[in-house]
């Protein structure tokens, strides 16, 4: 009897341990806020301040954007133009599907097979931004983000991304010097994360999108990068909440399906979901225990018949008696 309980406990611990281990990085995402790497509002010069010209300009003055082709939809032309108008001294690069593929084929041929194999076009739009930041450096901006002020103060940090609530980082506005180790790790990890999940939204998020980037961010920070290798974090207030923030956010995400609503609901109710997960998990374990392990301990006389119960194939168990008879013959 004790042996069964011990086996049951060991198996339970192993299953729980494995489950926690596989989602450990995700769990840490819920508790890490990145404030130690925050670009604080106090160190950012105000718009039009003379101090802007004194900050170092490490990131090259290039703005990268992506779209299927050159015909940008009307509702994104405003935000796009706001960034171009504010930055006449920046180079502007629009990465169409065609240009993106040519660039990967020429500069990162090892990735072309993965790139072509992605089932969703948004995965190519996600990945091309990491590669152009790694290759050219500059600032990547989603087409639904407009510019609210000049981005020059953000050129002072070798690499930065934007924090999202409730958890993680986004890939809709990012800046870096060429060959920054964070984006090197990002592009290097892409093939390994190229997996299919049940819902398209999860597949995109976890293979190339913000969830993928957030997990890479956690792994990267575990190595304790210092100095120029640090990845700095732009918080929501500096991103778009105020007149002195850098961006304005416009609605119109091109690829959000219905499952996005489920994911957002899950993100908002993660405590409830975690709790339910544990309840369901333990209920299943409890059922297994009551149905399969306990009866063996209670029925039948002590050791012998219990073991034969385990050993005998089912078709021989016509009745309890016959079963015991078999057993006796065998032993
Ligand atoms: C650009 O892509 C859009 C969306 O697929 C399409 O409707 C449009 O015809 C394309 N424009 C050109 C010039 O190919």
Automatic annotation (TrEMBL):
Q: Which residues cross the membrane?
A: 6-32, 198-217, 270-292
Q: Where in the cell is the protein located? A: Membrane
Predominant location: membrane
Q: Does the keyword Nucleotide-binding apply?
A: no
Q: Which InterPro entries match?
A: Glycosyltransferase_domain, GlycoTrfase_DXD_sugar-bd_CS, Nucleotide-diphossugar_trans
**Alphabetized UniProt keyword annotations:** Membrane, Transferase, Transmembrane, Transmembrane helix
List, alphabetically, the GO terms of the cellular component aspect. membrane
Name the Gene Ontology biological process terms: mannosyl-inositol phosphorylceramide biosynthetic process
| Classification via Gene3D superfamilies | 3.90.550.20
Q: How does it sit in the membrane?
A: Multi-pass membrane protein
- A Pfam family that this protein carries is Gly_transf_sug
The name this protein carries in UniProt is: Glycosyltransferase family 32 protein
The top of its lineage is: Eukaryota, Fungi, Dikarya, Ascomycota, Pezizomycotina
């Amino acid at each position: 009897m004790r042996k069964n309980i011990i086996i049951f406990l060991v198996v339970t611990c192993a299953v729980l341990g494995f489950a926690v281990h596989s989602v450990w990085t995700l769990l840490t995402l819920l508790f890490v806020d990145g404030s130690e790497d925050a670009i604080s509002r106090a160190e950012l010069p105000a718009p039009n301040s003379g101090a802007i010209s004194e900050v170092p300009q490490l990131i090259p003055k290039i703005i990268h954007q992506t779209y299927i082709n050159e015909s940008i939809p009307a509702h994104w032309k405003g935000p796009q133009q706001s960034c171009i108008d504010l930055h006449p001294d920046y180079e502007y690069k629009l990465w169409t599907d065609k240009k993106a593929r040519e660039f990967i084929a020429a500069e990162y041929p090892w990735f072309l097979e993965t790139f072509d194999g992605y089932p969703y076009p948004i995965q190519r739009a996600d990945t091309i931004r990491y590669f152009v930041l790694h290759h050219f450096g500059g600032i990547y901006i989603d087409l639904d983000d407009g510019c609210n002020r000049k981005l020059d103060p953000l050129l002072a940090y070798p690499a930065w991304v934007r924090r999202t609530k409730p958890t993680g980082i986004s890939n809709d506005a990012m800046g870096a010097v060429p060959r920054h180790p964070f984006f090197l790790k990002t592009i290097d990890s892409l093939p390994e994360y190229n997996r299919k999940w049940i819902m398209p939204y999860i597949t995109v998020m976890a293979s190339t999108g913000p969830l993928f980037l957030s997990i890479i961010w956690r792994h990267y920070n575990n190595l304790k990068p210092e100095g120029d290798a640090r990845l700095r974090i732009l918080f929501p207030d500096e991103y778009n909440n105020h007149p002195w923030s850098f961006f304005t956010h416009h609605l119109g995400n091109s690829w959000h399906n219905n499952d996005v609503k489920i994911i957002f609901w899950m993100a908002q109710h993660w405590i409830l979901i975690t709790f339910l997960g544990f309840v369901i998990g333990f209920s299943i374990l409890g059922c297994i225990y009551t149905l399969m392990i306990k009866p063996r301990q209670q029925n039948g006389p002590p050791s012998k018949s219990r073991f034969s119960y385990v050993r005998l194939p089912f078709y021989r168990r016509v009745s309890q008696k016959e079963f015991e008879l078999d057993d006796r013959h065998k032993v």
